[in-house]
Amino acid sequence: MADVALKDRLRDHPTLGFADWVLRGIGQVVFQNNPISGAVILAAIFYNSWIYGTVCLLGTIISTLTALWLKADRGMIKDGLYGFNGALIPIALVAYTSQNFTTGNMPNVHLWIYIVLCAAFTSVMVPAFGALLGPHKVPGLTMPFVLTTWFFLGALLQFTTIDVSTALKPTSPSDFTGPRPDYTLDTWNFGIFNGIAEIFFQDNWISGIIILIGIAINTRIGAVMALMGSALAVAVGVFYGAHDEAIRDGLFGYNAALTAMALGGLFYVLNLPGFIYTVIGVLVTTRVWASLGIFLEPSGMPVLTSAFVFVTWLMLLAKNGFPALIPVAPADATTPEENLKRFGGGQKA
Amino acid sequence: MADVALKDRLRDHPTLGFADWVLRGIGQVVFQNNPISGAVILAAIFYNSWIYGTVCLLGTIISTLTALWLKADRGMIKDGLYGFNGALIPIALVAYTSQNFTTGNMPNVHLWIYIVLCAAFTSVMVPAFGALLGPHKVPGLTMPFVLTTWFFLGALLQFTTIDVSTALKPTSPSDFTGPRPDYTLDTWNFGIFNGIAEIFFQDNWISGIIILIGIAINTRIGAVMALMGSALAVAVGVFYGAHDEAIRDGLFGYNAALTAMALGGLFYVLNLPGFIYTVIGVLVTTRVWASLGIFLEPSGMPVLTSAFVFVTWLMLLAKNGFPALIPVAPADATTPEENLKRFGGGQKA
Amino acid sequence: MADVALKDRLRDHPTLGFADWVLRGIGQVVFQNNPISGAVILAAIFYNSWIYGTVCLLGTIISTLTALWLKADRGMIKDGLYGFNGALIPIALVAYTSQNFTTGNMPNVHLWIYIVLCAAFTSVMVPAFGALLGPHKVPGLTMPFVLTTWFFLGALLQFTTIDVSTALKPTSPSDFTGPRPDYTLDTWNFGIFNGIAEIFFQDNWISGIIILIGIAINTRIGAVMALMGSALAVAVGVFYGAHDEAIRDGLFGYNAALTAMALGGLFYVLNLPGFIYTVIGVLVTTRVWASLGIFLEPSGMPVLTSAFVFVTWLMLLAKNGFPALIPVAPADATTPEENLKRFGGGQKA
Asked: Do A266 and A197 fall within a single domain?
């Protein structure tokens, strides 16, 4: 287990430990409790935009420091569980206030101060959702990030010192009719890999591939699941005739990829019913993303990862109803591989 | 108890049992764990539209099969508790995608596949809400149906292969002012019986009467409550001056009828405080239906039975606060008559 | 403790007790279980508008009577915990149906009947949220008021007999751009004290000062917290450049003042981490108020005290995650002063 040893070597280091926890925080956005995965993912973001890379790193540091200050559980902090929401929120705030969504504009002073409070507040949300969902052995997932972003992004519309981008334009939903778009191979290629990259708001398919590599360092099955989730989402979009641009930009895939990773082997053992259950979850997540977009359109707010969170919560809450599935408690869920080894592919006794 | 024997004769039958469970599933939409009630209600739907009857039957079958595949609790499946959400969802999806709301248009292939996934997903939601509400001894009601419909109906606006009807047109809410409409006796007649029929999306007052008969086969008090709920809702609409058409179409009544059945004798014993509590619940439900309509108008989404669900949940969650009421746990709630027999009309010790 | 004796002298009085409970109910809107505080606050409302004063008193009476009828816990009724939601709801309904928001118009018969049902229903909500949040030792706060108002206010748009005011006009959210407004000393003065008064929907800074006195009679720290919360909210509005009018009207402050009182000494002991945690809560509440306004704008519905409720719930649910904070269970939370005396400013063992 040299690999495991390597990834855990700095976790308890007196001075370098903090860097380890922060990198794990970035990895935990895609469920990887592994600083090397986190470092590769951070590199994937920097590859697309040094601005996004910088704010992502700072956000993770701030939320981790907040947890330390409030004396939160040391084990959770070390596992990056107080970092991953803070990793996402500054990227979201910068993306939706930048004229250039793809690489982002540097925040002004007002936005910097705003980001610090946001990232700190996500750390307050982590144990709040832990209290609500802990008794059900269901993790809070990225809900602290989603809720904090909705709380803070909407507010920006009421302030003159920070302007939001046109990506937040409120509209009245209208039905997409007319001929089915002409999809090309690019729809699939860009759609699938942007679907991975969009988890971190990156419009860059190469970043998507690097993120996949980061995941694969820690779990091959997880990487396959992410890929499958994003690909299935593209397939749904193509089959039902969604906007070509939305598919290509990876908007259909990023929630689906997260659901696939969560249900496919991590919080359920990947036996056959577990696999079919995951496929159902991915197909549903694709619709929920599309539907929440309609619900939110009049206010202009983005869906973020809420579709993934709602579907995964519901499908994890259901676990005691279905003995065909083998759930894994969040505290025991490491990688699909280890879950398979420990709990086997068979039925529960 | 020949009547009871008759209704339960097929429940454990090796081959015909499944048909029994499916019919109970249809009956459970209005809380009737009785295959004969279910069969009469199915007939009421077929009387109005063979399309709605067919999709209702198929949806119930799919959601019941999903529960069997996932090895869900056999007793719950046999009682139709994995069927009733699946009974409603295909009717909703067909109704809001048909040019003719009243009888529905036959779904295309894309919608058929869509319906299968939807109906299957409601079965996942049942134990999810069971996990959340079970500790409070509060049933999930039709929330799986409501949430799944919102999740899937909104998404249809983003796909070219399935178009939605004008009934989902998003608008900006405006205050209904001007002279009070001239209501006629028809407002009352149509309003009350369409209010029953609208539980199943049927614009047909005769279907409403047949459904009432289906309920009365299993419980007289339940049928009276449904009638009272719908009638009180019409009275509220007339007293406060609502749109005549909305009242006539039964839109005011269907949530109120369900609340009346749930609170009036089923999940609370029908003593005097229980009766007044039920009346309050019905009056509140009428407002909540009207209010949620305003909240949802900008997105164009329908209220469905969400008003009933929210009000009934709140009024059941409150039970431990009010010793004047005698709550009945969902597992023990059969019919108002049996509840009265077992728990009496008196106070708890 | 002559002061304590005085405030509790009538609590168990056979005939005057009821008046005591009602006044406590008004005081409990701002967490003061003290009839003298309640009386002073009621005077503050009457000072601005005898109509608002009258409906506030009647609403508190109705919701308290409803709880008595349903045999709710006597101790909770005596502490005014079944009154405070009923105190607020008639003011809200009158305010949003009056041409003159500041002093309100006298309700017509239809609205009077409406108010009675509303106030009664808030009492049903109290134990419902108690059941949901009680196990977490988190209070329901003014959620019964918020939810009931949303339920009933939206419905008014569908009825001709009661018209709503232009304050409920649905609009499409737009970003506030352009030069930062020229704030004056009045922005601060009016903003801070209207922020207190707006808790009770009063556009009157003198009422705000009288309410502060009412709070200070029971707890000096609580009054300071309310003032700090409102002042910090004004500071946020000024710093980020919000609409001058919104700040002046106290709209930024009323949720923030409530959060400050709840977190600052009442449900957490006011040690140093507790104080910083409170400041974070206040800053977040200000954003959440602004954000929820954007989310609700398409439906035209008001934010009410929902920002305070959501933020305070989350920050109380998080308590077990942060040993740096000393939480006080709702049943034990009397005043910040007594909490400090009992639990000290130090760390938990």
From this structure: yes
Domain at A200, CATH number: 1.10.3430.10
Instruction: Tell me how far apart the alpha carbons of residues C11 and A65 are, in angstroms, rounded to a whole number.
Output: 48
Q: Are residues C325 and C266 in the same domain?
A: yes
Output the average pLDDT for chain B: 94
* pLDDT at residue B346, rounded to an integer: 52
Q: Which of A72, A110, A156 faces C322 most closely, judged by CB atoms?
A: A72
Domain assignment present for A305: yes
* Count of structural domains, chain B: 2
* Closest Cα in chain A, distance from residue C89 (Å): 25
Q: Write the Ramachandran bin of A163: left for phi over 0, alpha for psi from -120 to 50, otherwise beta.
A: beta
Give me the residues of A, 156-185, that contact B with CB < 8 A: 172-181
Burial track C187-217 (b if 16+ CB lie within 10 A, e otherwise): bbebbbbbbbbbbbbbbbbebbbbbbebbbb
Least CA distance to C297: which residue of chain A?
A: A299
Average the pLDDT over B94-114 and give the result.
95
Angle among Cα B99, B105, B111 to the nearest 5 degrees reads 100
Q: Rounded to an integer, what distance in angstroms lies between the CA atom of residue B83 and that of residue B34?
A: 13
Confidence band, pLDDT 50/70/90 cuts, at residue B349: very low
Same domain flag for B204 and B322: yes
Does C148 share its domain with C87?
yes
Helices (H), B8-108: 17-28, 35-48, 50-69, 74-78, 84-95
Tell me the mean pLDDT per 10 residues along chain A, length 349. 67 89 97 97 98 98 96 96 97 96 94 96 96 96 97 94 90 90 95 97 97 98 98 97 95 97 97 96 97 95 97 97 94 95 63
Any idea what DSSP says for residue B264? Answer: I
Size of the A and C interface in Cβ pairs below 8 Å: 132
Q: Quick one: C138 and C191 in the same domain?
A: no
Q: Given CB atoms, is A124 within the 8 Å cutoff of chain C?
A: yes
Hey, are the CB atoms on C177 and A168 less than 8 Å from each other? Answer: no
Q: What is the pTM of this model?
A: 0.95
Torsion, Cα of B67, B69, B71, B75 (10° steps): 40
CB contact under 8 A, A240 and B154: no
Task: Tell whether C283 lies on the interface with A, counting CB pairs under 8 A.
Answer: yes
For C265, which DSSP code? I
Partners of B137 on chain C (C-beta within 8 Å) are: none
In the DSSP assignment, the letter for residue C160 is S
- A99-155, pLDDT tens digit by residue? 999 999 999 999 999 999 999 999 999 999 999 999 999 999 999 999 999 999 999
Residue of B nearest to A347 (CA): B71
For A38-62, what is each residue's pLDDT tens digit?
A: 999 999 999 999 999 999 999 999 9
User: For A134, which residue in chain B has the nearest alpha carbon?
Assistant: B132
A131:C243 CB<8 A = no
B237-280 pLDDT, tens digit per residue, is: 999 999 999 999 999 999 999 999 999 999 999 999 999 999 99
Radius of gyration of chain B (CA): 19
The pLDDT, as a whole number, for residue B14 is 82
**Are B53 and B41 spatial neighbours (Cβ–Cβ below 8 Å)?**
no
C249, C292: one domain: yes
Closest residue in A to C285 (Cα) is A151
Q: Check: CB of residue A250 under 8 Å from CB of residue A244.
A: no
Partner residue opposite A273 with nearest CB, options B70, B164, B298: B70
Q: Which residues of B touch C73 (CB under 8 A)?
A: 321
B116-132 as b/e, with b when 16 or more CB fall inside 10 Å?
A: bbbbbbbbbbbbbbbbb
Give residue B93's domain range: 13-165
How much is the pLDDT for B5?
62
Contact A1, A26 (CB under 8 A): no
ipTM: 0.94
